């Protein structure tokens, strides 16, 4: 009993840290300026249609939820970090979309079994630390015959490499947590869902990001907007040598990927995976 109480308290504290982390910087700008196409790609891949009941898990500012709502579907955008919802509501209003915004932990979704026709997550559920628990929740709330659609950064792509680059500088992961980019590995996701899904289709694609003069300019932008990177810098803030080393490592990563001529251009690889709930 005490163990269960302790585990629950520890998980609450962990989720509170994650919520605070995603509220740092300016995630709405990342979604709006760098990766808006990912939400549209996911909605198209999952074949969202008018009248369907759709849940977007770890929806952030509605990168997938808003285009899903524009199809005429009935959409709930859920996320651990409600601080992102005001920007999401503005995005929805600009787009002319109507949808609901609800605070929810992907590992304990507050929805009944089989209550959605389509369950989506765009570079979102991958950040819940316990992959099996989160996958079980996606399956549970999707009705039999319904669809699950995911976009996830791949381990081998730029964002996967960025997380590996930051790892030696970041706070140690909590016990039992798995690295987010594993969700970008088709076999890992197939293993999580097992025989509870059929018709798995997985494709690797890239999104091209640009707008910085140099790799260093990308790094300086990124360390000011992206919560996990800001949290990593905070972890080493009292050690200027490690800060300088992380500065160098992130700029070197961007330089290695940079294919721009007059400015930095980076391709970020992701996996689009869709499946049918058995
Ligand atoms: C990279 S953002 C993606 C947001 C949005 N789907 C998009 O495409 O822009 C990751 C999101 O995962 C959310 N998140 C992290 N851990 C979560 C959890 N355990 N449950 C629900 N959402 C979570 C964060 O709050 C954040 O909004």
UniProtKB/TrEMBL annotation:
Domain of life: Bacteria
Keyword Transmembrane helix applies: no
Group of enzyme by EC: transferase
Known EC number: 2.1.1.-
A biological process term (GO) from this entry: methylation
GO molecular function, one term: methyltransferase activity
Name of this chain's protein: Class I SAM-dependent methyltransferase
């Amino acid at each position: 009993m005490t163990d269960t109480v302790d585990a629950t308290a520890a998980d609450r504290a962990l989720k509170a840290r994650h919520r605070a982390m995603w509220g740092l910087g300016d995630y709405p700008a990342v979604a709006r300026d760098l990766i808006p196409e990912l939400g549209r790609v996911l909605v198209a891949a999952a074949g969202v249609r008018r009248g369907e009941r759709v849940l977007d898990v770890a929806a952030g500012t509605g990168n997938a939820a808003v285009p899903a709502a524009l199809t005429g579907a009935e959409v709930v955008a859920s996320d651990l970090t409600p601080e992102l919802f005001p920007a999401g509501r503005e995005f929805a209003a600009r787009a002319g979309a109507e949808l609901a915004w609800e605070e929810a932990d992907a590992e304990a979704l507050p929805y009944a079994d089989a209550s959605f026709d389509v369950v989506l997550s765009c570079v979102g559920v991958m950040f819940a630390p316990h992959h099996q628990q989160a996958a079980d929740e996606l399956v549970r709330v999707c009705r039999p015959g319904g669809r699950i659609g995911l976009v996830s950064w791949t381990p081998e792509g730029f964002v996967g490499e960025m997380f590996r680059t930051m790892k030696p500088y970041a706070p140690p992961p909590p016990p039992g947590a798995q690295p987010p980019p594993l969700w970008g590995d088709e076999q890992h996701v197939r293993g999580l869902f097992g025989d509870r899904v059929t018709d798995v289709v997985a494709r690797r694609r890239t999104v091209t990001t640009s707008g910085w003069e140099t790799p260093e300019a990308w790094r300086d932008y990124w360390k000011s907007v992206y919560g996990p990177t800001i949290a990593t810098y905070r972890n080493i803030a009292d050690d200027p040598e490690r800060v300088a080393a992380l500065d160098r490592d992130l700029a070197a990563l961007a330089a290695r990927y940079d294919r721009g001529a007059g400015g930095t251009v980076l391709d970020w690889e992701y996996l689009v995976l869709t499946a049918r709930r058995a």
